[in-house]
Fold this protein.
Amino acid sequence: MIIQRPKVLLTRKWPDRVEDKLCSRFEVELNHDDHPFTEKELIDALKKFDAICPSVSDKLNGTILRSGNGVHRTKILANYGAGHDHIDLSAAEDTGISVTNTPDVLTASTAEITIALILAAARRISEGETLIRAGLWSGWNPTQLLSTGVTGKTLGLIGMGRIGQRVAEIAGHGLQMGIQYFSRSKVSAKRLNGLKVSKVSLNRLLSTSDFVSIHCEANEDTFGLIGERELNLMQSHSFLINTARGTIISEKALAEAVRNKTIAGAGLDVYENEPAVNPALQKESNITLLPHMGSGTIETREAMGYKVFENLDAFFGGFTPPDLVTP
Ligand code: 8YV
């Protein structure tokens, strides 16, 4: 008797080792040329595959998930990533599709990129590199590219989940930064790993931090959380860092705040309408811009793939997947 293996689609190219692992257990369709899927391709995929493994570049909105009257062959969206704001969870639930994600394994790498952006923005790292590459460096002088120190300054974290806590540990222990945070959920002292941190209101955090870094989820409550009013509360020497989701900040307001010197600069890894980057941000040399690479280490991208494997393996084995988001 031939036992049919579940048909699984990877919407993007993954590291070889995890693709091989998935192929050993499932009938997998790979995306060899790594093209971003169109809306039509996603709608077709819902009819053809038992599982789809999407990532942040697949906007699985209500229109797509409710296509064909919401009757699909696909029973699970095993997301390759922790954030799932690109998936309409209620449409998935209404159409009988489970959603899983890959938490924990991205914490270290995303925290590293956050620290890198804090340092890059404050110490003008990309401006320095650009100068050399353009062949414009005329030699050392005492006032060239004067920057802002980070050690001992105050870091304000918006959101204190796994990534916020790891950033707090590195910045607090390593850079002797004072840490304060704003969070709507309760964070237990145990989870803060012996760090001295204080919980403050959002307004206080914005007006008293030298660096403000965003680590909350993107959802209806946090959409546009940082706009003109909030940027006006920040100090003129302060920096805004975002490695969470672009929709949490108004890019227009941020570009204006940097241009008008309301704040000193910013470091961004995520954007409102990826892969589009607001040209107003690109014009400001004191905004460091990275292409959504927070989790982009080989170790993390492989670990994310293994998490997807575990979620699919449990689901098709009749068990609850370890990282079930919904239902
Ligand atoms: C991922 C991320 O690489 O997991 C997340 O939430 O933002 C990224 O680091 C991306 O989402 C992959 O889908």
Q: What stands out?
A: The chain has two domains: 7-105+298-316, 107-289.
